[in-house]
Amino acid sequence: MSTTSHSHVFLGEGHDKNERRTWAVIVLCAVMMAAEIVGGLLFGSIALVADGLHMSTHASALLLAALAYRYARRHAEDPRFSFGTGKLGDLAGFSSAIVLLMIAFLIGYEAIARLIAPVPIGFNEAIPIAVLGLIVNIVSALLLGGGGGGHDHPHAHSHDHSHEHAHGKAHRDNNMRAAIIHVLADAVVSVLVIAGLLLGRTFGWLFMDPVAGLVGAAVIASWSYGLIRDTGAILLDMNPDRGMAERVRATIERDGDRLEDLHLWRLGPGHLGAILSVVTTKPRDAGHYRRLLGHFRNLSHVTVEVQQT
């Protein structure tokens, strides 16, 4: 086994850029939030105040994402973290997804309550607020979207001859993905609210507003579930890429050796860790197997145990 010292920094490629983007969107949301709350209190619009408070929940989630980026960067070299701070974004994403699920339940609860007991709606106030909220969300999504948090890495399915790359999920920045989902969830709700309000004002269908809320709650809950499932799998060290595990096995066993044990897990966006136990009849050391696995670009931390028989 190798005892040479090496780096344990497993942050994603765009870590610093994503951190800056997140702070920019927080400033935008905070300004909008303050304007809505102050404007609502000045003009006596409870709808404006409510929207401002709603935006504060998303601003809090974005703040969680930004602080996770900052902490992961500052403690990237901290020896207390055995495998670095690459998973901090997944922990923040998991926490953010739970907050998102709670928001979905609250919207659903409010919508059902309004279906049972309709309340009068100030359409002329509510529609411009919803449109303004949608504009802020679109700008936020465009700012964050450049970080690529919700998309697969461009090399995700590359299989050139010199290098093997892991599947797209191994590269995904779940911290940025959570931030984008919060903003998109708010945008979807804004679109549905605008549609519901316009139908309500035009045809007198007051029930369309809570129905739009229920649809929005279902969409948010679905996205939240996907995020909880993916980040939970990483936090529990599930195998992030079964195909890659099979290719590692094939590479090791190509010359007649036997791969006794293999553990593959994600250390951070684009970084995988592997522990291998190889049984061989030939005089080979750990360095031989490291060289064999050298073309797997995403294997950032490899521990090899060799058993001679």
Protein described:
This protein has 309 residues and is mainly alpha-helical. The chain has two domains: 15-235, Alpha-lytic protease prodomain-like; 242-308, Cation efflux protein, cytoplasmic domain (Alpha-Beta Plaits). It is built from eight helices and three strands. The chain has helices spanning 15-43, 46-74, 88-116, 123-145, 174-203, 208-235, 242-252, 286-292; strands at 258-268, 271-280, 299-308. A three-stranded mixed beta sheet has the order 1-2-3. The longest helix has 30 residues, at 174-203. It is elongated and about 80 Å long.
Radius of gyration: 24 Å
Q: In the CATH hierarchy, what is the architecture of the largest domain at level 2?
A: Up-down Bundle
Q: What's the mean pLDDT score?
A: 83
Classify the fold: give the CATH topology of the largest domain.
Alpha-lytic protease prodomain-like
Number of helices: 8
Note poorly predicted spans.
Answer: 147-161
Relevant CATH superfamily of the largest domain = Cation efflux protein transmembrane domain
Strand content bin: 5-15%
Helix content: 55-70%
Largest sheet: 3 strands, mixed
Overall tally of domains = 2
What is this structure's SSE topology?
Elements: H1 15-43, H2 46-74, H3 88-116, H4 123-145, H5 174-203, H6 208-235, H7 242-252, E1 258-268, E2 271-280, H8 286-292, E3 299-308
Parallel strand pairs: 2-3
Antiparallel strand pairs: 1-2
Helix pairs in contact: 1-2, 1-4, 2-3, 2-5, 3-5, 3-6, 4-5, 5-6
Task: List the keywords.
single chain; 309 residues; mainly alpha; Alpha-lytic protease prodomain-like; Alpha-Beta Plaits; 8 helices
